[in-house]
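In keeping with the milestone schedule agreed at the kick-off meeting, the structural modelling team has produced records for the first pair of proteins. Each record is given below as a sequence line and a structure-token line. The laboratory manager (R.T.) confirmed that both were archived under the project's standard naming scheme.
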Amino acid sequence: MARLADYFVLVGYDPGKRGSGDGQGQILQRFPEKDWEDNPFPQGIELFCQPSGWQLFTERNPPTFFVAVLTDINSERHYCACFTFWEAVESAQPQSHPRNGEGEEEEEEPSSPVQPAQLFAPKSLVLVSRLDHAEVFRNSLGLIYTIYVDGLSVSLENVIGNLLTCTIPITGGAQRTISLGAGDRQVIQTPINDSLPVSSCSVALLFRQLGITNVLSLFCAALTEHKILFLSSSYQRLTDACRALLALMFPLKYSFTYVPILPAQLLEVLSTPTPFIIGVHSIFQSETQELLDVVIADLDGGTVNVPECVHISLLPEPLLQQTREALSMVLDPELEVADLAFPPSTISASSLKMQDKEIRAVFLRLFAQLLQGYRWCLHIIRIHPEPVIRFHKAAFLGQRGLTEDDFLTKVLEGMAFAGFVTERGAPYRSIDLFDELVAYEVKRMRTEEGNKQKILRHIKELAEKLYKNENPYPAVTMHKVQKPTEGCHLRLHQKHFPRLDEGTVQWIIDQATAKLQTAPPAVKAEKKCMVPSGPPIAAIMERNGNALANSARRLEVVRNCISYVFENKMLEAKKLFPAVLRAMKGRAARHCLTQELNLHVQQNRAVLDHQQFDFIIRMMNCCLQDCTAMDEHGIAAALLPLVTAFCRKLSPGITQFAYSCVQEHVVWTNIQFWEAMFYCDVQNHIRALYLDNNEENHTDEESAEGPQEAKSALEIASEQLRLWPTMSREKQQELIQKEESTVFSQAIHYANRMSYLLLPLDTSKNRLLRSSGLGDVESVSNSFVTNSIAGSVAESYDTESGFEDAESSDVANYVVRFINRFVDKVCTESGVTNEHLKGLHVMIPDIVQMHIETLDAVHRESKRLPPIQKPKLLRPNLLVGEECVMEGLRVYLMPDGREEAAGGNIGGPPLLPAEGAIFLTTYRIIFKGTPTDPLVGEQVVIRSFPIASLTKEKKISIQAQVDQFIQEGLQLRSCTFQLLKIAFDEEVASDSAEVFRKHLHKLRYPQHVRGTFAFTVGQSPKQAMQPKAKEKNPSLRTLSKNLVKNAKKTIGRQYVTRKKYTPPMWEQRSSQHFPEDNEDEISVSEEMDRSTLTPTTTIKPSDKMTINHLVERACCRDYQRMGLGTLSSSLTRSKNEPFRISTVNRMYAICRSYPGLLIVPQSIQDNTIQRISRCYRQNRFPVVCWRNSRTKAVLLRSGGLHGKGVVGLFKSQNAPTAGPSQTDSTSLEQEKYLQAVINSMPHYADASGRNTLSGFTSAHMSSSGKWGSIRASGRMSSYALNMEIGSRLAGKDLLGAQHNGTPSEASFLRQHRASLYIIGDKSQLKGVKPDPLQHWEVVPIEVFDVRQVKASFKKLMKACVPGCPSTDPSVTYLRSLEESEWLSQIHKILQISVLVVELLDTGSSVLVSLEDGWDITTQVVSLVQLLSDPYYRTLEGFRLLVEKEWLSFGHRFSHRGAQTLAGQSSGFAPIFLQFLDCVHQIHLQFPMEFEFSQYYLKFLSYHYISNRFRTFLLDSDYERIELGLLYEEKGERKSQQVYKSIWDYIDRLNKKAPVFFNYMYAPEDGEVLRPYSNISNLKVWDYYTEETLSEGPSYDWELAQGQPEHVEEADRQDTSAPQTKRKIIWPCYDNRSRVEPDAISKLLEELHNLEMELGQVPERWKDTWDKVKASQRTEARQEGSRTPSSLLMSSGLSHHRRSLGVYLQESGVGSTLNLSLDSDTSSTSTPSSGKQGGRKSTSTLYSQFQMSESENRSYEGSLYKKGAFMKPWKPRWFVLDKTKHQLRYYDSRMDTECKGVIDLAEVESITPGTPTMGAPKTVDEKAFFDLKTTKRVYNFCAQDVQLAQQWIDRIQSCLSDA
């Protein structure tokens, strides 16, 4: 029983305490006046009666009632029910007015005779109680007020006395009627179970006020210990809201500051640092604004404001979602049916009281789900004298799979949960609704998940129980309490509340107390029982499948591997080992490992040999490395006993245990882990202690009952607790004694264990424990006992021992401190006596010291162990003259992001990662090693690239092997598409890795070209620069010096400032045109050495020699081949040649980057050239580089213009000319120059004046009379047309425009064909006006600059060799390839080249003048020649082309390849590589036109950056001469084996083996190639993607050939097994061309071997091949068939001249089908073999045929169609359109207007036809076919049978598709 009310207090306004602020209250009377012993009087009640301050008011307010809650020092809550009413104040002196009324009233006083306005002061009746019966308090205080106000004839003292002496039962669901002696009656119901909170309607109201989401976030904030503040203008509501929040938190109890109504005077409490739940009246809202970390809930406004700095962790999903749904079902049942057409009429929410319980049921379910299985993680450490229980948080989170969850982690760390464990952990107590729910209903909640009806039913059931608990008796007898009459508080003359007589009240109280003492004590029998544990977490979690994620197969692997280790089958174990390490990622596999290892421990000890020990350690380490410090899965805990069991003998008497090798894990430094382990062990021992007792007593019974299930520790504890009261005193003492000694012995055991794992093997290294640091351990501990005692003992100990400072002391002391802290903590919590604790503290340093001594011996011995054998380092093969700079560093080669070699999804053996060594030589970086995967074992893996091709080097850190720690590594990327991603082995010191990097950098960027490998080869690398080492040919040397001197002299002041090698300066010159250049120009020409300018026939002797050398250069040979003037004619000035070879640049005075001999028009003098050259960037004036032998059109190249020059010519004529007339003269000379070029063209010279039509050779003037009509339509602006070409190349489409009304296709065959086209950069040609008088025309196009090429290439490398597989699934290979835009650049170059080819082929000359004339210009010019002239498609011709256009014309190889230190910043720009890629694309499309193979192109791509040869070094001939490179070859060639020129090397190799030869080579005479350039027709070059790991790149031929293949055969003889011819070829490993050569190579090789065997001198392969081809031809002739173009072509492949598609020969019109650059339309018809007869106008090329979008062309071509009745056969262009399902025809290919449509739906049949009258004669009769439709029959005829068949098939397939 308990008192209903403890105190009755009367509080009133205190008139004496006024002045500054508000008034104050004072306690007028309190009953009883003496405090109860069990319940002292709470302080500060007067503050809470008027929470917003005591004030006087000018009118009477109606009485108010609310309940405030005070918490005392023992955290007991006191409920203060305040009933307040107002009384008039005797205003004797007006000063007593409070501030709010003062001013106005004093003014009024004298003026009005009326008595001053009356003031009213509040007075409160307060009941203080420990029970929360708000309604009863309201009624009782109301009754007292009624008696006073209505003057009832009842003694107030009696009523108050009765109220204070009334006692009621606390719980148990009793019903008690009370009366206060005023004719009243009240019924009090007590809750059945007082552990469940009572909420009446408050929870439902809270949800009404704030809504679901807001309340949920408040709920989470309260649980995660945030500060919460409620605001409302109603005190009662504040109390209700706070009560509701606490009710929601059940079964957790809130243990921080809880003040539902905070008085104004105490507002500063809000800035307390601890969490709280507080309510404040809304008038103080402004004061709460500056609280930064408080969640504020405004009950009246329904908002919850969470400050920015506060992060509330919400419930974990899916619980959050489920809770929300459940709440909305309860609060808003209409929501479910809101969309129904016929909503049920009956749905309505429950009554408020019921709704309140339903909401609480939802939260109760939520807690049951959150905490399910919590009892399985309780550790009971002591049972007697009272239970000590700990919760194993890590295990709980781990088993629930919620370690990452913020919310649950915070809740478990919180105070509320600590209280929960203390209160509910006990195994033997009375249980309530929550215990039942969490034990029995979890399964049900799992199964009902997602079923709304069932969930709702469950909620309603729980709500019923909760309701029943609060209202055990449904039919409550009516209360009868008098209420005051309406409006009584407004009575004017109300007398004051009387002073009560203390004596009377006290007498009533005393009497009642005496009566109670005589009465027998009412003992409430508590129903205690064993708390049910519910299903273990594992059983619950199985449904989630987390535990089952690991397949049984993996566990099988783990088990097998371990049994192999213990059976000493080391090879088997080694094979399984990588799989085991991979499996260790899964939790199940780790558990399995610990269980398996456990089986192999006998009598706490397992001695292993070294290899076994090593395996076991690696497994343990791998197992532990994925464990967090929390060890939530108990892996470290399971391994702890094992690491002290496994050991190996190092020498007699010295044993090394496993723990010395697994210390590197954070988990060992986490004190929480040790605590949990300790408690777990203690629990097991205590359980054993009691089990043993039981078994002694009950042996006989058990045998009868059969085996019982093993009891859990909690069950045993609960049994013991039940028996405890019945035991004798001695028995109790004995048990306490036993338990304590158990704990004590465990503490000693753990002190040992901790010293094992914390002391490093080498204790001399003063290494503190891991970086994680054992900081302030108490702060992170998960114990709930105060640390004060523990702390005090530990500190006293530390001070005695004399080492305060952990940092400075050695490891031993640090470990001692750590163990001490631990021991203090656990022993204090487990109730070990202080004497014992002191004993422990004395022991610990000795334990640690002893252990250190053992470790020293172990460390000494373990050092003597031979290290585990690592594979021996394999030496790489080196080239002649290649030297090792750094010996091998042991490294691991990691996969580079390509899947092929790593096994991966593609399959195949995992060649990488491989272990081996990295070598640095003067030429290459080489990795050589073997795969780490033992299953691939014997293969050798080599990856290497030339140092010169290194583009990026960065440090990385990688984990090389699964079981090892992170290592430092390097990632080296090369532009030969190799990537070395290496991790240095532990044995490689980091400084040697640094040395490696330094050397690498030095070799990559030598100071000067002389430092590159091509020069240093053969020298020992020490003396990199040897002065005067090579003076073998003095005459030559002096000659080149001479040359350079002269050049320097002639260049004059213009070049004075330039240092010898500063390529970056050139960049600048081209980008910013220095004004000083222009001003100097006049003076420069004066200073020039006259001898070089005047064309003289007398040449100095030294010059003669130069010229002889120049004549031998490639250019000159080529000029002679094309008949562009011979040198002699140039000197004797023969006038009949239009061009001459000029020696104006022989001293490289005019243009440094040009060759010495140039071809210029005959009529131009050398001194003019001197002047013209200044208009062009880098002085690169236009020179001829090729002439079309048929049309005599020439191809010229130059640098871009310097803003004046041709552009000047085109600028509008009347613009004022700037500067002196010098510029005009230059322009004129330039015009003259261009005119001279035009005049050189024969047809121009013949035709008088401007009849440009003669430009079209008769081949174009086809019989169809089209030209006349065009002529009549008037001249049109050719310029505009060309603008169009340019803009289309620049990617814009202007095709739609029609000029002057003529049909657009005709305008392309326009009559005015310029004789010279200048292809220039759009950006330079801005503002150019067409000038009709000129004979040339400018085609502005947009090109990409070098920067874009660099960027694109970087992306291309990233795409082909990513470095690491991308984690983002959207980044695929093709995607990144497209983003690199490499192919679109290739497309652009090809497109421009094809345009130029077309123009040259139609007889116009072309000048390519882009950028500085040495990048894109070179690419375009070389491609044009390659496409136009078959000579350049031979090995010899291609060499000549590269020497002429790339080397002589000064492509800056050194600068673009960043070959020296100077170029380091500008980076690598693969201009030449891009050209080779273009050649590769053409090669793919015309495989029969090239003498060289694809391998030849790859070979060049590799070696032009490798610096192995000198050919591609330096930026121009001038620089090569200066270094003495060009002419030394003759003298030296014999002396050295090393080839300096790549061409010599290729020649040599080509003689030996057919690697560079293309067997498909079958050229047609005069073939001009026009490749497709659409991106869809381009292929990614396999040079970028393929690699051969067996030998490294195969481009250093000696190295690849150097590996003899006979070794294998020798091995094979041993095996008696039948021999097989099968070979396995791995695509990324083997060199396919060598392992599996093509048939012809194989035959040639066999011939060679046979000849060797016969002892003949073998014939050269080329001779053999030629013989075979010749004999093949003669045979074919005898058979009389048509002559095949070559051996391979006789197989009927002739129409596959182009790899993609068929030739369609058109008859009638003498042109061929032509495919445009951009046409995506057809891939079957192709350009024919451009012989002159079958030439078609360039129009098709210009139009770049883009059909309007609406057309889809599935197939198209030309057919003859018989007209309707009596009409002739006509050729028409037919288009088959699958999408529209029709066959359309046009007059010609160019026609845009459709002439007719045949709907395929109407077609009935398609049959072979017969020729009718008027059909074409030449056609085979099988080429006719008829198409029968419902309306008529169409007769068709194709060019040949094949074509007809193709058309028939296409149409048939369309019909069948339909």
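The second protein of the pair:
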Amino acid sequence: MGRNDIFLLRAMGLMAESGRRTGSSSSSSRTGSGVLSLWKLVLLLAVMWTVRTQTPEDSKPMYFWETGPWGRCMGSECGPGGSQSRAVWCAHVEGWTTLHTNCQQFGRPANQQNCFRVCDWHKDLYDWQLGQWNQCVPVSLRTGAARPAMCSQGEEGIQTREVRCVLKASGAPSDDAICEYFEPKPRLEQACLIPCPQDCIVSQFTPWTSCSKTCGTGLQNRVRSVLLPPLFGGSACPNLTEFQTCKPGPCEGRDSVFSLRMGGWSNCTLPVARPTRQARRRKGGIKDPETRKLIKSKRNRNRLNRQESNLWDIQVGYQARQVTCVHRNGSTAALSLCPHWSLPTMFQSCLMPKDCVTSEWAGWSACSKSCLDPNLPEGTRTRSRQVQQFPTAGGAECPALEETEPCEPQGDGSPPCATYSWRTTEWTDCRVDVLLSQQDRRRSNQTGLCGGGLQTREVFCVQANAELLAYLSNMKDSAELQSQSRQTPSVPPLLSISYEITASRPVPAQLCIALVPETSQLCHIPCPIECEVSPWAAWGPCTFENCNDQTGKKGFKLRKREITNYPTGGVGSCPHLVEAIPCDDPSCYNWKLLKFEDCVPDNQMKCGAGTQVPLVLCINSDGETVDKKLCRDTLLPLPAACEVPCPRDCTISPWTAWTSCSQTCSSKTVEGKQMRTRSILAYNAGEVTSMVVAWITVMEGLTQLPKFPPLLGGVLCPNSSMLQEMRSCNENPCTVYHWQTGPWGPCMEEPSAAGSNASTRVSCSMGVQTRKVICVRVNVGQVPPKKCPESPRPETMRPCLLPCKKDCIVTPFSEWSECLANCESGGSIPTNKQSRKRIVIQMPSNGGQECPEVVNEERDCESPAVCPGYRWKTHKWRRCQLVPWHIRQDSPGSQETCGPGLQTRAVSCRQLDGTMVDVTQCLKFASSMPPITQLCQLPCQDDCQLTNWSKFSPCTSDCVGVRTRRRALVGKSKKRDKCKNSQLFPLSETQYCPCDKYNAQPVGNWSDCILPEDRSAESPVGMKVLGEAKACGQGYRYQAMVCYDQDNRLVETLRCNSHGYIEEACIIACPSDCKLSEWSNWSRCSKSCGSGVKVRSKWLREKPYNGGRPCPKLDHINQAQVYEVVPCVSDCSQYVWVAEPWSMWKVSSVDLKENCGEGVQTRKVRCMLNTVDGPSDAVEDYLCDPEEMPLGTREYRLPCPEDCVLSVWSSWTRCRMPCDGRADRERTAYAIRLPSGGRQCPETKQTEVCLLNKNCYHYSYNITDWSTCQLSSNAVCGSGLKTRMLDCVRSDGKSVDLKYCEELGLEKRWHMNASCTVECPVNCQLSDWSTWTECSHACGLEELSSAGRMWRTRTVIRASQGDGRPCPSQMEQWKPCPVRPCYRWQYSPWSECRVEEVVCGEGRRFRNVSCFVSDGLREDQGSMVEEELCAGLELAVDGDKRIILEAPCTLPCPGDCYLMEWSDWSPCQSVCVKGERLDFAPVQARSRAVIAQEPQNLLQCPDQEWESQPCADGECFEYRWMSADTGYADLVWCQRSDGINVTGGCPPLSQPGLDQSCDVPCDKPKSFCSEAGLCLCEEGYTEVLTPEGLLDQCTPIPVLEIPTAGDKKADVKTSRAIDPTLPTTAQPGRTGRIWYLQPFGPDGRLKTWVYGVAAGVLVLLVFVVSMIYIACSYCAIRRSLGTPDSANGTAVWMGQEAHELTYTCPECQHPAESAT
């Protein structure tokens, strides 16, 4: 007894005890006891069900082992020595992991195993082996579901295959994990579609034939053919013939019921051997006439006319046949019953069939690949066999006489294969002119061009390892010689090979398969840098030429300039840098006066006359400060006299500095001058001052100044002439000398080295260059050298490097090109030439060896002794061989020496010159072999014998008159009357002369415009660089011409006197480049101080067209102008303000006594060009900075006598940075005249606050943008220079001189120049046009009645760059081909079956093969023409070389039931579903129907026949029912989608008029027509209807599946829709939504949700029972109280809120019954 059973007994015991307790209770609770009993019963059942559900599999374990996937195989070595591991853990049935001890240890899986460690190199050893897909199996067979009764669109199936990992070498199976390491395992299954069974489909019946009899009872037949055979288990084909009886009328007279039937020919047999025949003849006394004729024949016949060769071994035999008389019912009767007419021939000659016999295979030839190179394709080797016996009379044809197989050279002695690679010549010189535009080429002299250019080279192919192969060949030859002489080889090892560097021999370019190297590249010619020098410095002092040698009194003044831009090639091209002027009294050292010190009055007075001590320095001729001792011989400047004004003296300002000298030199007419000035600052005191004197003179009108005695006042002011001083300067004469240099000469060997190297000159050695140096006087010319100073004399000789000489390097000559080997008709050999060339790799230079004059050679080809080619030679026909007379002598009507026979001839193979060769050569290279047998006829004595027809007589002209041909009777035929019958044997034939009229007409479109081809021969060896070839100008375009004859047949165009084209001149427009004007002059710099821009422009003169060079980017505003803007900088000191001395004071309020007051001074201020010698020329004022313009007027109070007189204020000091308002600036003055009388001098110092942008400024560098890339004036493109300018900018934005920023020491972190590149305008470079392709149509016209086309193409070698000319769009051209007629061999229709003179039986049918011509279009079936026009074609019809012109046939006898001829092949049809082709081969069919003539012979009819064959390009047809109402009946038929009415193909259930059909065909997937005529969906699918109520589609029903015990993931999930293509164990039926309840877990115990459901049901039951109990209790209470409501058994309960609950108890409505 189990635990559950004990629990059940205890529960029952408790219930019993409870029942006893309930039974002993009071009667008042009797009603409740029933309810409690019900509750106990329910509880018991629940417990029992719970216990029972837990009884199965009670011992199932709660814990089990789980394993993870195996890890990667690890190990130190590759192969089977590895190991892999996996995780193993203990899990609870609910899915959670627990301790290992909870699981049984004896069943623990292994966590480690041995494995095969896969390495990368195993990929070459192992691979997946894929098996073939098995047959498509319906899904329903795998799932067990029922197959659908109806098939609409096919049935889904599954295909499987085997996939395994194998060892490639042996195919041995291996572990799949090895292959999965490299590639996932291919799929093992795939879906497929099994088409629905396809019934046989036949065509409509033909109309009824006429009655088989003209009287009596006959049959009419109608037949149909098979269009599609039954497929995939479809129904068989129906009867193809229907019969019906017919009775044309009663027969009158006796009806013939017998017919002669001709039997078939027997097999060809040989007659009895000749000795046997002779023995029989002697016995019978009959001498064989054939034997007699053989004996009399000549024995010296030409052996060539005999078939002596065993290749044919022709044996002539004979055939026999029978003639029987047959009844209409098919039975045989005696010949006497048949109508008697002449019987046909019963015997005929025939050829004994012989199969082709070949010899054994000869040995394999040597491998065509004789070298070792795994990268090259395999070679081939061949073997052949000879024909020993040709097939005759339908014997087995000869097999292939030659076979080929791939091979590789065997053995260690095979040398490596020749390898080929590209070689190039040296680059040509860089050329810039090829990059010039059309405009530049016309207006430029193209000399001195520089910058970017283009250079080219030639590319050729060479054998890369020719030296190695030659070395190996020499080693092999040496080894052979030494083995013969048995000597020890003394060849150095291979590693010690040393090659002489030589050029390799060119080989044909097609041998090099690598990418062709570039044949052109951009290059750069450095542009010459012009020498730029600075302006001349000032003249230096007069100095000795050599201060170390100061003899003589002649010296020089020098001025110098420096090179600011060094030129290309050295400074030799720069102008002279030193000029000299002779002078007197030279001195190497001079005193330099810095300034005079303050004036010190003499005698220690405070004012009055005094002296000024000079402050000097000793300098040399270069202006450098030296020791003062060196100037001891030079006169020291003396102290100058001066005067310190007293308080009442006139006060004069100090002298200004001397102006710059007005001339650089002096002459008789020109003298240099300098000037300095001073001004009156205050007048002296006195009664009569100079001002008073001037005033009196003016007022009195005096002509001269009055003289007044000196008064007691101050020192008088000097007159105005004393306020200005002039002195001479630059008194040296204007005779300037300088050294002038010529260009450097060529680099020459030194004379000393020339003697030692007289025999051999060493290249690249040192040499010398010389140049001419002369002394030149400016504006005069060359003078003696002593006129110029010696110290700056340039050198006349310098060392140089002699250029290395380069010899010309050429390749050896290439091999001679091949001669043309083809022969023209007649065996003549056209004369042709062969050529060879060598390529110049390096041009000579610097005296190297010159190149040979001949680099191309040409010679005539040698004429071969025999022109290759083979032809068949036929010999005379042998005599006609008849069937032996002893065989046919019993045949009625036969004669001994006449009748039909067979004759043979010999055939041999000849070369074109007539030499006999082996026949196998003609089998390979000649046309088909001519026939060696033919039928013949030996005329009998009574036969008419005629000659052959003569040729037709000539016609006088076309379309006029007739032409005739004749023949004549021969021998005794001339005397026979029947032979003279011109109706039977005409002796002449007449026909109209042919009327050949031809009509030419154009077809198709005009071709492209094609330029005449360059006839210059191109070398097949080298690949030359394409230049800018002429690709425009006058060309020609072509239109094809066709020629038709009077019968509208296409003929050769020569008959229309045409070469096949209409030619018309055309023009290919030449490209015109963009044309611009010349550059305008540069504008003036936009700023006079600092950096600005300057502009120049070009104007568009002509836009490009026809693919010319495009214009550069035009201005987006003005599309006709091109701008170039570059930065520029203007020296802020190039224009300066120059002020003249102040004028005399004009005092406005004159105090005649004091000579002082308010006054005004003026001066002129001009803007002048500043030079190194000082301001020179006046310019416009706007060029100078207006802010720096000096004042032209000043107002000032003239100091009175005894007042303090101050000097002019000094300049303001510079403000301290930064300008933050915290610093001041100041200026000072000093007292020139001290005051008297206690008067004070005003302040001699002024200060003001430094305010930003008012008197204080910050300075910073400003960098401009980069200019455009600037090239040399002679450059088109290439490397250039872009520049930018550095500007010093004040804080208020004004550009100032750079010295302000430099004085502050600001950092310059920018580069002002940078290299740049202007892209070169490289025009598009194209290859040459390829050769013309073959014609797209060998003959005839294409669709749309156009001629065939030939194409040629070209490719882009280098695409255009920059503004180069773009590539043209036309990369291919076409022109029409000459239209040739399409000739072909074509069969005529088969003739009717001929059985000679007999009514029926075995006969023959015949057809001819004729020459047809057509224009190649589909609708043109062609016309028959003379066979000579097809003479050049191989005799084959539609590619079949087996020409069959005769075939056996059967002519049915009256009453026979027979098969018709085969019908035509039906259209090719594919297996399709909804218009989509399936992966099945298309098929077509044909059939033979039965024809019956006698009703009684129907049982003897043969079975109908049909056959099918695969075909290509099948069509998809659809079939549908058609119906029509004729008024009395509905016609229903099946129609194919191409409009043909058929039988079969339409679905039978949807045929109109059938009860079970649906009104709308059920053609939706997964739908079918129900018995009620409704479209429903198959199981697992639900119907979706349209608004009209029609079936729209069948959709899968979503199925909810409560998973099985094996599913640990979830209890309830949505499953996939039922899909018959997926493998399942069972397929549910059509039940809508299906629920699967799985209450048990994997351990066999109830799942938790089952307990929850049970508890919920239990609570629900308790609630219902409790409610019933409460209601019944109230009912009992009401009844016991006897309330008025007890009559109807209604209990009322009043709630707390006076809500009333009323319950009517049905059992309480009858109180009387209840009481009882």
